[in-house]
Write a structure and sequence with these properties.
Strand order of the largest sheet: 1-2-5
Number of helices: 2
Radius of gyration: 23 Å
Helix content: 10-25%
Distance between the termini: 60 Å
Largest sheet: 3 strands, antiparallel
Number of strands: 5
Order of helices and strands: HEEEEEH
Length: 123
């Protein structure tokens, strides 16, 4: 959820550019501002629910970072490759995060060495 300040800024200055399949809303400033020698617009996203940057699809990511000029159209939102997979949230820092064998939160017991390792000795 957006903070109160972000909601006020968006209401005063924002123009809705689009919404993605996760419900994230993408905005741009109504007026362009002069930055350096050129004019540009400020772009931002208001996340639906918990703010998780990994939920920003690639086509919107490119637009947010000014890689592409125009906001994605509905036709641009299809998966371009057969091997594309659906979004999986970043589980780092949660109880569902991967913990290898021997990790303290995974029991702390490491498997015994198998003897297939030889230490490097400099000559």
């Amino acid at each position: 959820m957006a903070t109160f300040g972000t909601k006020i800024f968006t209401w005063l200055n924002g123009e809705l550019a689009g919404v993605d399949e996760f419900g994230n809303r993408y905005y741009r400033t109504r007026r362009k501002t002069a930055i350096g020698r050129g004019e540009t617009e400020r772009r931002w996203v208001v996340h639906e629910g918990l703010a998780e940057p990994s939920k920003v699809p690639p086509y919107w990511h490119g637009w947010l970072h000014h890689v592409v000029l125009d906001a994605p159209l509905e036709r641009d939102k299809t998966a371009p490759y057969a091997w594309s997979k659906p979004h999986v949230p970043d589980l780092t820092g949660t109880d569902l995060a991967y913990r290898p064998p021997g990790h303290l939160q995974a029991g702390g017991k490491r498997p015994k060495a198998t003897g297939d390792y030889q230490a490097w000795i400099p000559k």
